[in-house]
Amino acid sequence: MQRVCFLLKVRPERLAEYRERHRDVWPEMREALSRTGWHNYSLFLRDDGLLVGYLETEDFEAAQKAMAETEVNARWQAEMAPFFEGLDGRPDEGMVPLTEVFHLD
């Protein structure tokens, strides 16, 4: 299983709304993530807007590609894009995995 961690930056003025949107993620979005190989997926948000994402998957590139092909992801990314700083495209395209340097199993 591949462990993936990534960082994004939520606009400070949109933090409350971003948190609210994630209290009730669309059921079809949740189902699509699970179906396309996104497991143990978590988002952590710091008060300054730093967003840390973590997931486990067999193949991150394949999971991203499969998710990008879903209609629900296109709608979700379009709604979420205005929440982020420093992105030229969709938020899911801005997720650059960090390099794992240590893991205690």
TrEMBL record:
EC number, UniProt record: 5.1.3.32
Pfam families given in the database record: rhaM
Signal peptide: none
GO molecular function: L-rhamnose mutarotase activity
Record key words, sorted: Isomerase
Gene Ontology biological process terms from the UniProt entry: rhamnose catabolic process
PANTHER family given in the database record: L-RHAMNOSE MUTAROTASE (PTHR34389:SF2)
Name of the protein described by the UniProt record: L-rhamnose mutarotase
